[in-house]
Each structure stands twice: as C-alpha cells, then as structure tokens.
Specification:
It is a single chain. The chain is mainly α. It has 2 domains: 1-41; 49-131, no CATH class. It has 6 helices and 2 strands. The chain has helices at 2-20, 23-31, 60-69, 73-83, 87-96, 107-129, and strands at 54-55, 58-59. The relative contact order is 0.09.
Length: 131
C-alpha cells in the first residue's frame, strides 16, 4: 500500500510538471530529441542558465542535441566551428554535458572532449556492436 501511495504522489508531481512544460519541449521529448533529467535539490545549483544553456543568444542545449544526431566527428567539428563559441561557451556546454572542465583546458581541447562525448562514444559503441 505504501508503494502505491508513493507512485501516486510521483505521477501527480510528474503530471504537474508536464502541465507547466512548453509543448515544444514535450514534442522534443516524445520524438527522442530531448530527455528527462532528475536532479536532487541542493546537489547541483547552476550558476548560469544551466537548463537552457543560453549564452549570448545561443541555445547550447539544442546545439548538444544537434551534435548527438550527427554521423561523424568531422561534422561535429564543423558545427562547433560555425557556431564560433568562445572558451567560456565551450566550458558551459561541457558542464551541461557533465564533462569535467579543467583550468588548463583550452578551447580546442574542450571542443575535442565535447565531440568525443556527444558523437565519438556512440560511434565507438556502434563499431563494437558491428552496426
């Protein structure tokens, strides 16, 4: 019975969040372009607009989604090159992706790490599985 009460509360809370969510975000979730993320309160307090990843009019979160849909690392490098992101923007993007950011990192190293996380890991996995 206690488990049913917990599930009921969970579904009620999820329903409330869905009602507040813009329809575009729900469409992205249903199409697989977006994913849900559960973050404990107090565990990770963003200093900037972490959820949207907004940086000088750029939507870093949507750029990450675009990167994850690309077929090669070179395409990812071209996308990041066209965006002309600063080192600070790349650091924000890396943090959104939960990648470590080191003081010694330069913009090129951050680009490489972002590409490897968003595209390279998937390509390596597909190669191992023989796809």
């Amino acid at each position: 019975m206690e488990q049913n009460d917990s599930l009921g509360k969970l579904f009620k809370r999820i329903g409330g969040l869905i009602e507040k969510t813009p329809i575009g975000d729900l469409d992205a979730l249903l199409s697989g372009e977006a994913e849900l993320l559960i973050v404990r309160k107090g565990k990770r307090q963003p200093k900037e607009n972490h959820a949207l990843g907004a940086s000088n009019g750029r939507d870093l979160a949507s750029m990450i989604l675009d990167l994850r849909s690309l077929a090669s690392r070179d395409e990812g490098l071209r996308l990041l090159g066209k965006a002309e992101l600063s080192k600070k923007d790349l650091e924000k993007m890396a943090r959104i992706m939960d990648l470590p950011v080191y003081r010694e990192d330069n913009a090129e190293r951050l680009r490489q790490r972002i590409i490897e996380q968003s595209i390279g890991a998937r390509l390596n996995s597909e190669a191992i599985r023989g796809q």
